[in-house]
Every structure is written in structure tokens, then in C-alpha cells.
């Protein structure tokens, strides 16, 4: 009996091979499709809001990235998730630690979130600085800006930033979320005393 099994196993029929190939292809399609559905769901505003409804979602919904005259809406993943494959998966793995922190109670209330806001913000600002604000530049970049259509101060600052090799997050830290309390912080990210963050 065992000998017969190994004989058939070593010399399978064409129908058997065909069945295995078709079954493997169908399983691959189903797994890849399910994986992509799960991936897209975890990139959605609905998913992000399930944990952040009481902290950053109200700030985001009050920002021009959510509601504006042109009707162009940016969702969480547009700013916090790179589009390129390797950077996207690197960020997804990093984000799993953030989900773990929420599930274990480290940042599961507004008060706890606020206590950690500065550290989380600085980590995100550093990530964006390191990749030249790529997520911002998917929609905004110096090469496509018509400085003559901007207010004088914006045109001047954008021209200077382009010349000096600055990136979006250098000036636009409070664009979609409230800034953390940075009193007494000597971080390169903190605005100067009495300086209002650029919006």
C-alpha cells in the first residue's frame, strides 16, 4: 500500500498535475485578493478612525485636507503611508507597533494620547523629513507650483525652501493635526518662541 502510494506520488497522472496546478492558482488568487482587501481596509479612513476618533480625527476633519473649496479630500493613508512597495511595507510594520500600543492601553484615551503626542509627532516628522516629504509631494511639489498665483509670503517662502533644499514638513507641521505641547523642547522640530506654525 505504501509502495503503491509512493509510486503514484513519484509519477503522478497528467490529470493529477493539472488539478494541483489549477487548485494552486485558484488558492493564490483567493489569497492575494483577500490580502489586498485587508490591505485596502487598513488604509481606509474608517479603519484609522476606529482608534483615533477621540484624538486626531476631529483635528483632521477641521483641516483643509478634509474639507475645502475644491472638494479634494486627503485621507490618513495619503499622508502617513508611502505608495512605493518597500517603503509602504516598512511603514505598515512600524504601524503595527502603534496598533499594539493602542490595544495594550498605552494610548487608548485622549489623555494618554496627549501624553505621548510629542514623541509620536517627532517620529512622524523625522520619517517625513527623511523621505523628503514624499507623501506631501504626491500632490504638492515645487516644480508644479505657480508662485505667481500664491500670496506673496507663500511664494517667497516656497522659493526660498526650494533653493535651500527644505522639505514640506520643515514648515507645515500643524497642517492636519494640532501641534503637541513643545514648551521647553529644544528639538529641531519646535517652532521658535512666539512663532506661529505655518498652515
UniProtKB/TrEMBL annotation:
GO terms for cellular component: plasma membrane. InterPro entries: Cytochrome_c-type_ET, Multihaem_cyt_sf, NapC/NirT/NrfH, NapC/NirT_cyt_c_N, NapC/NirT_cytc_sf. Belongs to the NapC/NirT/NrfH family. Heme 4 binds at residues 136, 139, 168, 171-172. One of its GO terms (biological process) is anaerobic respiration. It is found in: Cell membrane. This is Cytochrome c-type protein. Keywords: Cell membrane, Electron transport, Heme, Iron, Membrane, Metal-binding, Transmembrane, Transmembrane helix, Transport.
